[in-house]
Amino acid sequence: MNVIKGIAGNNFIVVGRVGMDLFPAPGVGIQDAASFTADMGGSSANIAAGIVKLGGKAALLTRVSDDAVGRFCVNKLSHYGVGTGHVSVAGGEARNSLALYESRVAGHQSVIYRNGAADFEMTVGDVEAVDFSQYSALVTAGTVFAAEPSRGAAFRAFELARAAGLPIIFDVDYRPYSWPSAQVAADVLSRAGDLSDVIVGNDDEFGFMAGGKELGQQKARDLAASSAAIVVYKMGEHGAVTFADGAETRTGIYPVTAIKPTGAGDSFMAGMLSSIATGHDLESAVLRGSACAAIVVAKPGCAPAMPYTADLEDFIASHSGPTLS
Questions:
Q1: In this structure, what are the phi and psi dihedrals at residue 298, rounded to the nearest 5 degrees?
Q2: For every residue of 124-162, which 3-state class applies, written as one string?
Q3: What's the pLDDT tens digit per position in 28-42?
């Protein structure tokens, strides 16, 4: 399998959640807010929206609740140009995830509601209804593996994507509140990593899979040596190390005045993949992903803050950096 060629097809099936985000005006705490802006959230949905805004194609594979919030999410996916043909409705008491977060760094609060999450109701049948040959690559984030039947369905998606010749791109995206235990999470996320061609995670996430943060970078290095074609080990303000083709490449960040921490990882993934798809080499693609992350943390919202291609080019042209610390 040619991983770069698959990404270059720029037509992604993205597996995982879509939700509703609510956020007050910049600087306002949730408890003091008189009004909130509503928009789309959810890591997989954000990645898909970011890809489309940067000129690619993306469709989401998930379930949504059979209510007004679920319909809001589907409408927002359409608004951002994300394909909804593989979005099905979960019945009963299943509900879309809801995230409230603040556009401030000092004292930042995020409140996530995930009880009875509709996306965890995705089934093997939902996955087997997809013609994976119509896409060039599969992308997913770790939350999709946190509960059944979604976990089994996601692993089935990996099998079908592999059979169709698609590279598998995995954002570790460990969210402890979604998992029954840390041990289950470590075991399942490690299994997903072993099956993936491209793996992106931060130092905490790789450290979690390895059994200690000090072991995380070696875990990333080992995955690149054994099974993955590309592994990106992110270190926040200290940049990233990319492992590929036996080489280790250190890249920096674009410093900005952040107003929130949310959305950076999703935008990084969208920016990196879109840049590879449009012909940038891997080092440049990682840097452009970092630029996308910087753009998002400096604006309110997640999906609405993600850049279009012109925004990204203007940012890179006008910004000093990247810097290594």
A1: -95, 5
A2: HHHHHCCCHHHCCEEEEEHHHHCCCCHHHHHHHHHHHHH
A3: 999 999 999 999 999
Overall fold of domain 17-316 = UDP-N-acetylmuramoyl-L-alanine:D-glutamate ligase (3.40.1190)
DSSP assigned state of 144 = G
Q: Which two tokens stand for residue 140?
A: 């997913």
* Structure tokens belonging to residue 191: 């299994």
CA distances, 33 to each of 22, 25, 111, 261 (Å) = 11, 8, 14, 19
Q: Distance between CA 91 and CA 104 in Å, rounded?
A: 36
CB contact set of 198 (below 8 Å; sequence gap of 6+):
3, 7, 167, 168, 169, 170, 228, 229, 230, 231, 232
What does the pLDDT look like over 112-134, one tens digit per residue? 999 999 999 999 999 999 999 99
Share of the chain above pLDDT 70, in %: 99
Position of tokens 């995955």?
Answer: 223
pLDDT of 253 > 90? The answer is: yes
All structural domains of the chain with their residue ranges: 17-316
Element (H, E) at 241: strand 240-244
Q: Which of 190, 182, 189, 130 is nearest to 161 (CA)?
A: 130
116 near 94, Cβ under 8 Å? yes
**Residue 72 reports pLDDT greater than 80:** yes
- The number of residues in the chain equals 325
- Say if residues 147 and 82 touch (Cβ distance below 8 Å): no
Write the CA distances from 117 to 121, 129, 268, 302, integer angstroms: 7, 21, 25, 20
Residue with tokens 């931060």: 202
Could you tell me the pTM of the whole model? Answer: 0.97
Whether 44 contacts 62, CB under 8 Å: yes
Separation CA 211–CA 214 (nearest Å): 9
State phi, psi for 5 to the nearest 5 degrees.
-65, -40
- What are the phi and psi torsion angles at 42 (to 5°)? 95, 130
